[in-house]
Amino acid sequence: MHIPDGFLDPKTYIGTAAAAAPVLAYAVHRTRRELKDRQVPLMGVMGAFIFAAQMINFPIMGGTSGHLIGAVLAAILFGPWAAVLLMTTVLALQCFVFLDGGVTALGANILNMAVIAPLVGWGVFRSLRGLGMVPATFVASWASVLAAAAAASVELALSGRIGLGLNVILPAMLFWHVFIGLGEGLITGALVAYLGRAHTEVLPRAVREPVGEEARAS
């Protein structure tokens, strides 16, 4: 999923960075207002977990790879905008310290995994919350992986650097990420189920309470 240097042309890596920048600025604004002090230590622990999970890569084609993302887990625990910042921090550290993902492609990687994945995943989770916390988490995690993979496919095709069209890149990326997404859904669903039973206090009210309870209480 981490796009390396040389896979994107200037118009694509500049365009994706420009698209991600205002979202990050808005995420900073929202996170300052919404994130509680007691959540900061857990955010650090979760960042380290996501960092480690993303370092396990599965080769796909043309030098690209797939891996777990962790965006929905971050969005459920801290909210979608804090998740955007957490995922951006993880991606920047991986890029500059471990050379996982290219510097020129950092804007695209942030757009795919730190913006699209958590926001799409959170939207799916909220829309399916009535099915139950764990089923909604599973589907949202799966959808977030596919959305990020589809975005990466479009960027690679627009760049034309790997010599393959969208009709080849998109099916190949989605095929493998269907299965990677199932793994992400199972892992994220299991973690959220465990936290819901053993550590309910770490789950935000909007996540742990049945649909409608939050609205009636407010």
Report the biggest beta sheet as strand number plus sense, adding barrel if it closes: 2 strands, antiparallel
Order of helices and strands: HHEEHHHHHHH
User: What percentage of residues falls in helices of 4 or more residues?
Assistant: over 70%
Report the end-to-end length measured between terminal Cα atoms: 40 Å
Structural class: mainly alpha
Number of helices, where a helix is a run of at least 4 consecutive DSSP H or I residues: 9
Low-confidence stretches: none
Q: Strand share of the residues? A: under 5%
Query: Going across the major beta sheet, what is the strand order?
Result: 1-2
Radius of gyration: 17 Å
What number is the mean pLDDT? 87
What does this structure look like?
The chain has 218 residues and is mainly alpha-helical. It is built from 9 helices and 2 strands, in the order H-H-E-E-H-H-H-H-H-H-H. The protein is globular. Helix 3 packs across helix 5 (106-128). The chain has helices at residues 10-34, 40-54, 71-78, 80-98, 106-128, 133-159, 166-198, 205-208, 213-217, and strands at 58-59, 65-66. Strands 1-2 form a two-stranded antiparallel ribbon. The termini are far apart.
